[in-house]
Amino acid sequence: MTADRSAGAGSPARSGTPAADGGPAGSPARTGTAAPDGIPTRPSSSAEGAARRLLGLLAADAPAEELASQPARSRAAGVPAPDIAGVERATETALSVRRVLDQHRRREAELVALFDTAGDLAALRDLDAVLRAIVRRARTLLGSDVAYLTLHDPLARDTFMRVTDGSVSAAFQQLRLGMGEGLGGLVAQTARPYASTDYRTDRRYRHTGTIDDGVAEEGLRGILGVPLRLGEEVIGVLFAADRTPREFTPDAIALLGSLADHAAVAIDGARLLEETRSALTRLEAANATARAHAEALHVASDAHDRLTRLVLRGAGIDDVAAEIAALLRGGVAVHDTDGSELARSGTEPVAPSAETLTASRTDGRAIHADGVWTSAVLAGSESLGSIVLTGRSELPEADRRLFERAALVTAMLLLMRRSVAETEDRVRGELLDDLLADPAASPRWDGGSLTLRARRLGVHLSRPHAVAVLDSEPALRPRLAEETARRARRLGGLAGIRHGRVVLLAPSEAPGALARTLAADLARALGAPVTAGAAGPGHGPEHLAALHAEALRCVTALHALDRTGEGADIAELGFIGVLLGDRADVGTYVERVLGPVLAYDSTRGTDLLRTLRAYYDQGGSLSRAKDALHVHVNTVVQRLDRVAQLLGPDWNTPARALETHLALRLHQLTRAETGAGPRA
Question: In whole angstroms, what is the distance from residue 559 CA to residue 548 CA?
Fold first, then answer.
């Protein structure tokens, strides 16, 4: 019975039975003790029992604290001291096994967590969601206070804070780390993981004020950073950090590195997916745009064909304007280069602003301003006019292109009209040449035939006509000729080029006013000064050659007098006009210069004219003038003050004095010729 119990209790080497040579049985811890009845107990029961208890605790997954308490429990149970050492050794072995099991269990949990993380990341499609999940999982797996992720910026050649979890500092969340700066910059630069137990005091890293301030505001101490790598490329850094010093174990570094590897693949996949989605979105948008564009092209092409056929059938500008208005569901007005209206349909009179028209010419596009759309009508770089669309505050791209195509068709129509007008202008120019030819130098000159030819073109020479000669910069003279011809058609006159100068023959009884109007209007149309000299009025073709010669002298005189860019007739040039005019109207000149004085003397019976003549004859001397007049000097002064009131305060300036003195002499001459004689 005793032998069976001993065999079941343990091996013979540890049974404590007597030695074969009959020596001592061994120490009490290794041999059994005799029972009162003389039957020995089971040897080493205390140590073996403790070992069994430890194995049971390991099997039950008892905490390490309970395993470690077994030696103390054995002592409390009265286990002999020799057996206590065995219990302690067994406890150490059990704790070592427990640590290995815990390590394997933790590693298994980490692997499961990584596997779950990989599955979660693979299920995500949005890049921001992927980044947030990575940082959140890193903080959970490492049990850190804060986790964050930076991404590489290839343009700035640094990394920037992209996502944080557990962070409370705004400054920290906006940090940028240059390559090699701080712990993260070193990780990004070297593509190796780095850890710091306490970053604040760790001098292994290159500290910067910005980084240290952000880290201090967040309160971080222990920091671990691992690279996010795609092949050889580092796309960012993943961090785990605590607000207390922390020693990051190799297992923690490996765990965060594994998560970073999964994260890098997930980031790349999400980015590729996002790029693919973006590309698909752009492709869909491009397809939609292409379809809309094709439809718009079809509509625009059809409208262009309709307008073109309209023009080719010989329709006028009014018909084209009406068709454009119908196509664009608005009102249309067409204007010439000088702003005059050529046609209008479905709208009140409206004219484009100069700024809007200039912008349309520059851009070659329709411009919206002041509630209307304006498009310049261009032939290449040459402006032919403008077209205005009203009643459409919004104009889709298709309609806008249609409006611009309408401007092209309008340009084609205006070019055709201009071609016809140029042919007509050649006929008119030939007639003008014949009209301005000197009758004395042309034996075959026939005024009656010329009058008939002019009447066929709508020019009635029996009315008073004026001749104007216009001049501009040489490079602008072709355009000046076109604008003058257009003006001549509106005035019912003729225009052409003679001796290199543009000439206009138009009905007018006021050549000076005509010259001023032409100079101002044509200068606006050309954007450069235009000088106009005019002569007239004249009746019948026989006087036109002389008027042309006089107008030519007038425009030459305007240039000589530094009055380029002005318009005038001979009479308005003062005594210069008297000298230049071959039909000098001395009476008109005298009346223009001395009229107020003559009228005053006539109505009041005064001697202002005689006093004025004496004053000039005596060289402007008051004392000599009063002797010549036999009056007191104060009388002379008073009379000259009255002259100043009548002729103006500048009557005695050199230029006015010259004209006044000449007018006095001419007045005296004409009275002598008529026998009136000078008044005493």
Answer: 17
List the one residue out of 132, 227, 128 whose CA is nearest residue 177: 227
For 404-414, b/e burial (b = at least 16 CB within 10 A) is bbbbbbbbbbb
For the stretch 321-332, pLDDT in tens is 888 888 888 898
Quick one: what percent of the chain has pLDDT higher than 90? 17
The pLDDT value recorded for residue 111 is 58
CB count within 10 Å of CB 589 equals 23
Q: Do 472 and 530 meet the contact criterion of CB atoms below 8 Å apart?
A: yes
Q: What is the pLDDT of residue 283?
A: 86
- Beta-bridge partners for 477: none
222 φ, ψ (degrees, to nearest 5): -80, 130
Outline where 461-585 has alpha helix (H).
477-491, 511-526, 544-560, 575-580
User: pLDDT tens digits for 132-171?
Assistant: 888 888 898 888 999 999 998 888 888 999 999 999 999 9
Task: Walk across the sheet containing 372-379 and list its strands.
Answer: 341-345, 331-335, 382-390, 372-379, 367-369
Amino acid at 14: R
The Cα–Cα gap between 210 and 158 comes to 14
Give the tokens for residue 369.
């301003």
**pLDDT of res. 116:** 62
Would the CA dihedral through 650, 655, 661, 664 be positive or negative? Answer: negative
Predicted local distance difference test score (pLDDT) of residue 678 = 42
224: Cβ–Cβ under 8 A, 6 or more apart, which residues? 142, 144, 193, 194, 195, 196, 239, 240, 241, 248, 252, 253, 256
Q: Using CA atoms, how far apart are residues 152 and 132, in angstroms rounded to an integer?
A: 17
Whether the Cβ atoms of residue 17 and residue 6 lie closer than 8 Å to each other: yes
Tell me what pLDDT residue 392 has. 85
Task: Determine the Cα–Cα distance for residues 566 and 601; give it in Å rounded to an integer.
Answer: 35
The answer to whether 310 and 319 have CB atoms below 8 angstroms apart is yes
Q: Measured between alpha carbons, how far is 26 from 80 in angstroms, rounded to an integer?
A: 14
